Amino acid sequence: MLRTTLLGAARNDALRRVVTTSPATRPVVARFVAGEDLTAAVRAVRELAGEGLRVCLDHLGEDTTSPAQARATVDAYRELFARLAAEGLAAGAEASVKLSALGQALPGGRRTSTDLAAELVAAAHEVGVLVTLDMEGSGTVDATLGTLRELRARFPTVGGVLQAMLRRTEDDCRDLAHPGSRVRLVKGAYAEPAALAHQDRAEVDRAYVRCLRVLVEGGAHPMVATHDLRLVRIAQDLLSRAGRGPEGYEFQMLYGIRTAEQRGLVAQGAPVRVYVPYGTDWYGYFVRRLAERPANVAFFLRSLTTR
Q1: Which of 110, 152, 182, 184 is catalytic?
Q2: What integer is the mean pLDDT of 239-253?
Q3: How far apart are CA 218 and CA 170, in angstroms?
Q4: pTM value surpassing 0.85
Q5: Whole-angstrom Cα distance, residue 201 to residue 165?
Q6: Other C-beta atoms within 10 Å of 306: how many?
Q7: CA 262 to chain centre
């Protein structure tokens, strides 16, 4: 119930105005968001790289309502790539891109967002930055996977994201489980109906393991995106039994969450990539992080009441 309420809050404009304008909110948001501008993002990248952590950058923005906004998103990513290259931080970095931010929902948006994504991927490729297409609500899965297939014809390293909570995902994993296929597997952070998605947490976890096994056995490059340490251990066992070395997989965790565990995995020799969001449009991302774990909500409320 709490999770559903919070996910609904992500699209509540009135609540968005209250949260984003409150001075008390900013220190809490800073736990999950690297900053509102490119300089803050680059600073976070440099700090994480110094600790042996890889990075995945996300210029926050959703619900693009005009071609001009979509164009601005591409320009923001191009600026990011140029800055990373100038700072010597581009090689091996990753960018995560939401096709909704490139106009996927606009009239003719499937073609527009695919073309803009191709431009963005080409610019990233020039400086050695990887790109992964993020996954959003269930209604966009087919369009997003279609764009992924089209981009991979030219840039095979483009990554995709699959959500274990969706009932269709095991089949999607089979389609993407081949050598060289970079797939970020997440539990899922969108409110979905029972007909389309598992609702019970234990069933989502079981689905996650089934999907991960399909990816590993099919030869894909799994990006194991979870903070659930039990699933991390299961993944380590699956990868070990498959003979995967550090070049054949990676763990991914969010900026500001389980930081000690991130560094612990690095100390064990595991590749770990930290998802680093930045930008002024952080509200939707922030609320979804609260929805994922009740402890995040308690942290947020405690921070507000103790200021």
Answers
A1: 184
A2: 97
A3: 12
A4: yes
A5: 9
A6: 7
A7: 16
